[in-house]
Write a structure and sequence with these properties.
By secondary structure, the chain is α/β, with parallel strands linked by helices. It folds into two domains: 234 residues, Periplasmic binding protein-like II (D-Maltodextrin-Binding Protein, domain 2, 3-Layer(aba) Sandwich), CATH 3.40.190.10; 92 residues, 3-Layer(aba) Sandwich (D-Maltodextrin-Binding Protein, domain 2), CATH 3.40.190. It contains 16 helices and eleven strands. Strands 1-3-2-4-11-5 form a six-stranded mixed beta sheet, with helices on both faces. A five-stranded mixed beta sheet has the order 8-7-9-6-10, with helices on both faces. Helix 7 links the parallel strand 7 and strand 8. The radius of gyration is 19 Å and the shape is globular. The relative contact order is 0.16.
Length: 336
């Protein structure tokens, strides 16, 4: 449980972790920066899924370096990342789901940008399963029953008149494990993001439902501790400006072919799968780093029900978008 990670952490947590900084070959760029002039920032990622690709792209295109930031993408389990954020041993995390659970349990964190404003997950099943009703009595792979994948699966089942208690959720911890479990037929269905859902579909597996049609949950963005936000406002805004530049680049149709080639290299997948995966991802990306307030409020109610929390929350409890607004303003002033 999250509380166990938080309560039992030690001051040496960061040093004790086995951390993998995942990287891929950088895209060519005409700009050259001195590494010594950049401020190092650590950003947690839960996996190297396509949902996290904007962070790699922003790094490889030089958008972070333009803002004076040397970003290190650090791979670790979300509960450990939340503990590291609270203890000050990590600067940012991309996992809004785990962060939201922590905030609603009283930990001093805030969402500061939405990279995705909608879910990209698809409920994907074995080829012989053609209907959500066919999943009764079956096993569905999710990262965790109480995270965004588990809540998405629950919402899809309920939305189709299937009682979630009539299926078994297998907690796999990470997407790659869910995908492998489905491919090996150890489960009958899985909640998968792109490009895993598109790869499975290309192999004849059934795409049963889109999570965004049933649950307005947030998965990818940035969260940080309130203390870090208060102590480093200019650094926070630099990171946010880099992400806003990345979002603008991804939404620009002129860059589509280049981005698809990047995805092919990123995930080692063929062109048709990469194109379909990017289409799914692009539709979910925020244009300006925000998410509609009514969607956030609906999301809060899903978390309260899942986590059995009686206390009411408003979006302002989860968010601090003041740094994002300042980043947006400075980009407008600079003509970007």
């Amino acid at each position: 449980m999250l509380s166990l990670y938080l309560d039992k952490r030690s001051s040496g947590l960061w040093a004790a972790m086995i951390v993998v900084a995942a990287t891929i070959p950088a895209l060519s760029t005409d700009l050259v920066w001195s590494a010594s002039a950049l401020t190092k920032v650590t950003i947690h990622i839960p996996s190297k899924s396509l949902s996290l690709m904007p962070f790699y792209l922003g790094k490889d295109k030089g958008f972070f370096a333009e803002e004076g930031i040397e970003v290190e993408l650090v791979l670790m389990a979300p509960p450990i990342a939340i503990a590291a954020l609270v203890s000050g041993e990590l600067h940012f995390s991309t996992t809004l789901g785990a962060g939201t659970s922590a905030i609603m349990q009283g930990h001093p964190l805030k969402r500061i940008i939405y990279v995705q404003q909608d879910l990209t997950f698809a409920l994907t099943a074995l080829p012989e399963i053609k209907s959500i009703h066919d999943l009764k009595g079956k096993v569905i792979a999710v990262n965790a029953p109480t995270d965004a994948t588990g809540m998405s699966a629950t919402a899809i089942l309920k939305g189709n008149g299937v009682n979630p208690s009539g299926v078994t959720f297998l907690a796999t911890q990470i997407t790659e494990n869910s995908y492998r479990a489905l491919m090996s037929r150890k489960v009958q269905a899985a909640i998968l993001p792109p490009p895993y859902a598109e790869e499975a579909q290309a192999k004849g597996f059934t795409r049963l439902a889109e999570a965004k049609d049933f649950a307005p949950l947030s998965t990818i963005g940035l969260i940080a501790s309130i203390d870090y936000l208060n102590r480093n406002p200019s650094r926070v805004q630099s990171v946010l400006r880099a992400l806003l530049k990345t979002l603008a680049y991804l939404h620009n149709q002129k860059n589509r072919s280049e981005v698809i080639r990047y995805i092919i290299g990123f995930h080692k997948i063929d062109h048709s799968v990469a194109e379909k995966a990017f289409t799914t991802m692009l539709a979910a990306l925020s244009h300006d780093g925000t998410k509609p307030r009514e969607a956030v409020q609906r999301e809060i109610e899903i978390y309260r029900e899942t986590l059995k929390i009686a206390k009411s929350f408003t979006p302002e409890v989860l968010e601090d978008l003041s740094h994002l607004r300042q980043a947006q303003a400075s980009l407008r002033e600079s003509g970007r």
